[in-house]
């Protein structure tokens, strides 16, 4: 029997790729949900769809190339028509916590030049308030201990993300500190406070960036929530 979360992710991904049209330039997200969208886009390319894409991680780029999705360099991009990506949490105002897959900095750069930003999740990622999932913060390795202490002073418990017995390295050769704040009542304020810390390269808050959230449920229900709250 298929895992319910995976079924939800597949359903959301299937709905998201319906927005894609020939000639578009796409942003390809990173993570277990975006994986299914990339697979679907690969099928569309195989059937003759003409698109171009950039990827938010080396992992997603490798998958796209494997599926013969045309990848172009970022230097060739001034905007993206659509980006499809996942999220670790989505609140009722469509604010996100992202970065569980380790690609938050690249994901935010891509999101910032995207005209229509689609977030796909299984329904378990929809929350009233952010914070159950620790906030990923990408930091410079140099003097990271100082950065960690400044983050802790904001009221969190930071934890170095590890890969075996070594710190996990992002595609940009940075560390990630996963910061447990508990319930976050003002994501925008906390985002500014975290971003103001020297040594922080980027945080996992995506505030007001998503245009549409598509969630899938194991029972087959797909919900599309737009910025104005319409379903």
Any key phrases for this structure?
single chain; 231 residues; alpha/beta; 2 domains; six-stranded mixed beta sheet; 15 strands; 27% strand; globular
Please render the helix and strand layout as text.
Layout: H1 4-16, E1 25-28, H2 32-46, E2 52-55, H3 58-66, E3 80-85, E4 89-90, E5 96-97, H4 104-112, E6 114-122, E7 135-139, H5 144-152, E8 157-160, E9 162-163, E10 166-167, E11 175-180, H6 187-195, E12 200-203, E13 205-206, E14 212-216, E15 222-226
Parallel strand pairs: 1-2, 1-3, 3-6, 6-14
Antiparallel strand pairs: 4-5, 5-13, 7-11, 7-12, 8-11, 9-10, 14-15
Helix pairs in contact: 1-2
The parts where pLDDT drops under 50 for at least 5 residues are none
The residue-averaged pLDDT reads: 96
Q: Which radius of gyration do the C-alpha atoms yield?
A: 17 Å
Structural class: alpha/beta
- What is the makeup of the main sheet? 6 strands, mixed
Strand order of the largest sheet: 2-1-3-6-14-15
Count of individual beta strands: 15
Tell me the overall shape: globular
CATH topology of the largest domain: Rossmann fold
In short:
This protein is α/β, with parallel strands linked by helices. The chain has 2 domains: 4-127 and 207-226, Rossmann fold (3-Layer(aba) Sandwich); 135-203, Alpha-Beta Plaits (2-Layer Sandwich), CATH 3.30.70. It is built from 6 helices and 15 strands.
């Amino acid at each position: 029997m298929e895992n319910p979360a995976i079924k939800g992710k597949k359903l959301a991904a299937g709905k998201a790729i319906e927005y894609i049209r020939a000639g578009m330039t796409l942003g390809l997200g990173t993570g277990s949900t975006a994986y299914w969208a990339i697979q679907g886009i690969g099928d569309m390319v195989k059937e003759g769809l003409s698109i171009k894409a950039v990827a938010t991680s080396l992992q997603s780029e490798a998958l796209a190339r494997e599926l013969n999705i045309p990848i172009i360099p970022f230097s060739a991009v001034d905007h993206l028509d659509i980006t499809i990506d996942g999220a670790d949490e989505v609140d009722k105002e469509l604010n996100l916590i992202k970065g569980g897959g380790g690609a938050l900095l690249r994901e935010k750069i891509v999101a910032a030049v995207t005209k229509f930003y689609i977030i796909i999740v299984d329904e378990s990622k929809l929350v009233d308030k952010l914070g159950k999932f620790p906030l990923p913060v990408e930091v410079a390795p140099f003097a990271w201990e100082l950065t960690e202490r400044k983050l802790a002073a904001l009221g969190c418990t930071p934890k170095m993300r590890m890969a075996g017995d070594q710190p996990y390295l992002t595609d940009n050769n940075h560390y990630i500190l996963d910061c447990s704040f508990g319930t976050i009542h003002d994501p925008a304020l906390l985002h500014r406070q975290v971003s103001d810390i020297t040594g922080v390269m980027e945080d996992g808050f995506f505030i007001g960036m998503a245009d549409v959230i598509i969630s899938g449920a194991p029972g087959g229900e797909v919900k599309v929530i737009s910025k104005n709250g319409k379903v």
